[in-house]
Amino acid sequence: YVPPQVRRAEETLDDKKREELGRLKKMVNGLINRLSEPNLSSISGQMEELYMANSRKDMNETLTDILMNACVTAVAMPARLIMEHVLLVSILHHNVGIEVGAHFLEAVVKKFDELSKSDAEGKECENLLALIAHLYNFHVVHCLLIFDILKKLVSAFTEKEIELILFLLKNVGFSLRKDDALALKELITEAQRKANTAEKKLQDQTRVRFMLETMLALRNNDMRKIPGYDPEPVEKLRKLQRTLVHKSSSGKETELRVSLESLLSADRVGRWWIVGSSWSGAPMIDDTNSKTQQKLHIGKVSSEIMELARKQRMNTDIRRSIFCVLMTSEDYLDAFEKLLK
């Protein structure tokens, strides 16, 4: 027996649909290949038109696939190129709808989680981190996610992780300090503690020392001490973003305030950060004890009250319980006691 869900997935797309998707992919690919700072305005406009003409789901999937193929490679990608790609996502996120950024972010984070657990030798993790960092720079995602990733890297604290922490702090450290100085301070304290305990294990001591110096430079807001730090390109592209976003605010109210854990468990517990996102799966709160208690509680109530509850359309156990409590209580104190139970 093959369940309908799996059956649908296994069924091949009909030719017409496949042809349409192929054509869409070619168009999006053509636009992405030509993407550069001077023509960002026209390309984002054409992408918006494609979003209006095609289904959002197809567009999100196509765009995410093409961007991932373009940016996530085994060699380190030029920072400029990644910034321009992410800026396009950011403009679409603000102009078309937050599900554009949300879909791309989820794909990037899941891929990063998968690769960080494997022993991949290439620079894919750095490229994915750069994508996440610039999604934060261009106000698609809130600093909460960046701190979650940093905490995860600090808790592992191997040489690969130290490299990634440095890479991330170099890209977004000063923005993090501006957004949440306290969380950054806690992170630095935790990293110092880890460095002290892991000192014997790690062969490359200079790398750890350099990371701690970078963190202290961040804490003291000393940009000169971070080699190669140049905020100019990001600032320039932020100005461009402000001109291209239709709404008056390119702002922070469209930022996705979502944690790493929520993104990784999205398939199980749903995507609360996307309005109207459908959700299917196991119930979010599976508390069997409370269910049995509710049923026992209802059992003591007369059939007349139950009939009344049915007429009033009290269609779940908890609603029926509350209705029965309100109808059968002697006074407000009695009702209060029963409701607490």
Structure, explained:
The structure is a single chain. About 4% of the residues have low confidence. With 341 residues, the chain is mainly α. Helix content is 70%, strand content 0%. The two termini are 44 Å apart. Helix 2 packs antiparallel against helix 3, helix 3 crosses helix 5 and helix 8 runs antiparallel to helix 9. It has 2 domains: 262 residues, Serine Threonine Protein Phosphatase 5, Tetratricopeptide repeat (Alpha Horseshoe), CATH 1.25.40; 38 residues, no CATH class.
Task: Lay out the secondary structure.
Blueprint: H1 4-10, H2 15-33, H3 40-53, H4 56-71, H5 79-95, H6 98-117, H7 124-137, H8 143-156, H9 159-179, H10 181-197, H11 205-219, H12 232-244, H13 260-264, H14 266-269, H15 288-299, H16 303-311, H17 317-328, H18 332-340
Organism: Eolophus roseicapilla (Galah cockatoo)
GO cellular component, one term: nucleolus
GO biological process, one term: ribosomal small subunit biogenesis
